[in-house]
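An example makes the point: we print one protein in full, the chain in one-letter code, the fold tokenised, without further comment:
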Amino acid sequence: MNADIIKSLAWGGGIVVLALLATFARGQGLIDSEMVNRIVMGAIGLMVVWFGNRMPKTFAPSARARDAQRVGGWSMVLSGLIYAGLWAFAPHEVAVIGGSAAVLIGIAVTVGYCLMLRGRAAA
């Protein structure tokens, strides 16, 4: 099996284990349900950061593809950090809206940059 697939499955399994442990801690009265939600959502934000960090390190067949990967990696790292930070420190409503907006903006920056590169190539 590919090493990237194994690492991705490890992230997914780690988040499931983290969620189960947090649920167990809630059942024991150590934390409340909002804290369980914040722990799991923060871990998802850190997973976005990890995937964004991996993007520029994968093979790309051309210089433009490498440029797109670099911009996409930066935008995912920054949006993942904002997402995780909001879930760690902001009120619940702000974390939901702001975190989702951060990830959507990161995706929009990546798509916009790719479309810009495509327009340059056509010209």
About this structure: The mean pLDDT is 93. The longest helix spans residues 92-122. The CA atoms of residues 52 and 76 lie 5 Å apart.
